[in-house]
Structures
1.
Amino acid sequence: LGPLGVHVETDVPVMAQSPEADILIIHPDQETWTEEQYIRLADGIRDSRASHIIIEFKYTESINDDAFFQLLGYCYFYRKYKRLKRDKVAGFLISSKTPEKRTLEEVNYHEITPGVYGNSGIFLLKDTQLLVLNDLPLTQNNILLKCFASRQKEREEAFNRLSTKEERESRTDTLDFILIGLQEKLMKQVIKDDSDITPERLEAIGRQLVEKAIDKASPERR
């Protein structure tokens, strides 16, 4: 083909750089999660029997066909790289926004439980699920994810629940500062990109807010 003016290459990289999935959860090969693990895992994820769970999180982007292709690519290449059987890897797409009904119909996703969608007809998508944060119930295992829901009411209810004495006593001070910083960012809607909500940056914001509150409090309140 070369002499005919056709450019031919072999062993061609298809991307300029390796893609990176947002979250990877590795669950040792066992039939069930422990009780401590189970109460910290969101609906859908806690029911997975896969030992390797890949999560792609869409906060500002809407769900479309490309999002599912992206998740499938992550799962496939990770499975090949780690030499894992297909049933050992599951993919979860987490969406801050509620997808359009038409989009869900195109990929044949239906609601399994509130906020958890699965595929019932497309073979390639059978190992993937979609979590819609606006629709997940406000239970202890979902509460942290609910902080990222696109609907303000859902976010506020999650943060209100997190501020209860029972919830605070179950967390470390560091996580408390991170949540305070996260709430400040989300309520002011000043998140520009992922680098704007790193744990370190959120913790620093949370500590600063707490210190200001203490400075302004009455002696009795302190």
Note: The beta strands are 23-26, 52-58, 89-95, 109-113, 116-119, 128-132.
2.
Amino acid sequence: PILIMVVAICAVGVVITSVLPRFVAMFESSGVELPLATQMLINLSEFIRGNWLLLLLALGLMVYFLIRFVRTSEGRFWLDSLKLKLPIIGGLNKKIISARFTRTLSSLLKSGIPLMQSLEYVAAVVGNKIIRGKIINIKEDISKGANLTDSVRKAKFFEPVLIHMVKIGEDSGKLDEVMENTARIYDDEVDSSVQGLTSIIEPLMIIFMAVVVGALVFAIISPMFDMAQTLEM
């Protein structure tokens, strides 16, 4: 999908900056009244060609300040929150975090690391500042006497199936094995979600590219029909 988007942007850029200017002189000399879409496209082309350096500089500054903002504590919190709230992407990120949580916790417990210390390490590798805070809260609740199941449920992030698996692991005394099996389930769900998302996005991007390029071509060709009709008259 990213490749298709890059191709679409490049195609539009070439049409606007290189192809369209070659027709402008012909349109002006014909005296034909240009359609609104064609006139808007010509104005956009002239604006981009006349201010491309300023636009490039503005884009570079936007990217620079965005990166600077994301590297701050507030920016990282905002970005991590956005990752969890976006449609479709948010659900996928939650599954990825759940997979990291269960996989890392299982590996640490199997290595003989105590639960409290394991949770501290898990919090550092989940890759999301908001969830990191929730795992730290889980650790603090356990230190006050709560069990892992109730603490995970109190976090109000993990799915009921994960909470249920944590309870099974605690009750059976095989938390490491149960978390490993849960991690496999989430890994499979993540793979399926990514494949499904890709299969949806690719045709949508192709359709979008076809519509955009088709609209550009129509805006360029439509005045030519008017010119042909004028010449016949």
Note: The mean pLDDT is 86.
3.
Amino acid sequence: MFGLISLEELIRNALAEDRAADDVTTALLGVEGETSQTAVVVARGAGIFSGEGILTAFAAVVQPGIRIVPVVREGVRLQAGAELVRLEGTGADILRIERTLLNLLSIACGVATETDR
């Protein structure tokens, strides 16, 4: 029988699958990767934002290493280039999670956008 898992567990599993802790690019940063950085996630196209729950769950999983700051609210209609989320932390910490975060947000926003259509 299939069991339900929490969103936090899904994120932990996805980060492990993506080998976030062993990211080769991040390792190449060396000491430069330990400097404080801010990254901004922007919309590639117009659509509907969905992902507040994902951001909350990511914050619970990665704290205290990264501060995740939502810029838009759930259900907001977006234009291409709209700022969605700010990530604050070391460059290395941000790089470790960015692919997984972007994948999950892309799925959620894509479903919301298609549903709206």
Note: The longest strand covers residues 83-90.
